[in-house]
Amino acid sequence: MPRTAAWIEPRREGIYLPAADAWIDPAEPKPRALVTHGHADHARGGHGAVLATPETLAIMGVRYGDQNGQPIAYGESIRLGDVDVSFVPAGHVLGSAQIVLEHKGERVVVSGDYKRRPDPTCEPFQPVPCDVFVTEATFGLPVFRHPDTGGEMDRLLAALHANPDRCVLVGAYALGKAQRVITELRRRGHHDSIHIHGALQRLCDLYVEHGVELGELAGVTGLKAADLKGRIVMCPPSALNDRWSRRLPDPITAMASGWMRVRQRARQRMVELPLILSDHADWDELTTTLREVAPSEVWVTHGREEALVHWCMTHQIKARALDLVGYEDEDD
């Protein structure tokens, strides 16, 4: 019996499509790359040509310089060789997409990274029924069930209001997480200026250029510690405990990440206020998604692959783990 989607070749450095002579999220430069989103473990520079959403190409431009890019809008379909290709929203970050491949009567969806929670900074995930669904498993264990987003933001604001002589320093990944935290705070009525580390500025500007309202943002340079009392300050996770943060007024150190569910990670980061906020699907959302798209086969990658493969097998869904390299948890 022929193998499902035999026209797709998962390789160590990415997923190769011989019939289209193209790669999906390759870990090294290739002549033609289809890119799901702008995080560095999926979008790398140096490709001969890049096909991605306009927003992802803009993000890659900020990070790597101008790309030889072909923008593909959500819902647009193109033909590469003998493969029909389209991009649909993944709900992960601005411009993130699932790549839908159709060839020889089969449909394969490569989801990239995705989440199912509402996010005011990006288009919501769109389930696409398919024969093969390639899913991430970053939080692919039953212990990972993310709490309500609003509740986590309320905890942040409560800490801020209870400590007027301190600031709250929030570590958040520069692409996606930082902008999501800012917009969620705005939705809860926090309209004061939010201070940001310089490393967040370019991507915040890009989000604003693409219609995401972030409100008033300000830097930290030149300010005295007293100027930052009662303020929210945001930085990359790497800056939480470095020399830059020492100028702040007795900061309450927070970090917005799905990994804050793991207490040991919070302790290792010396995080006083762990905020469980993820841009990836949790266990229930992963399994719900598989039920919705109803594939005959699931390919699992970059994460806790074994548990999700086992879940598929117990639900009469054929499954396999892909051994791809180069994927990281992005301080999610």
From TrEMBL:
GO terms for molecular function: RNA endonuclease activity. InterPro entries: MBL (IPR050698), Metallo-B-lactamas (IPR001279), RibonucZ/Hydroxyglut_hydro (IPR036866), Xnuc_lig_assoc (IPR026360). SUPFAM superfamilies: Metallo-hydrolase/oxidoreductase. Transmembrane segments: none annotated. Residues 2-173 form the Metallo-beta-lactamase domain. This is Putative mRNA 3-end processing factor. It comes from Sphingomonas jatrophae. The lineage of its organism: Bacteria, Pseudomonadati, Pseudomonadota, Alphaproteobacteria, Sphingomonadales.
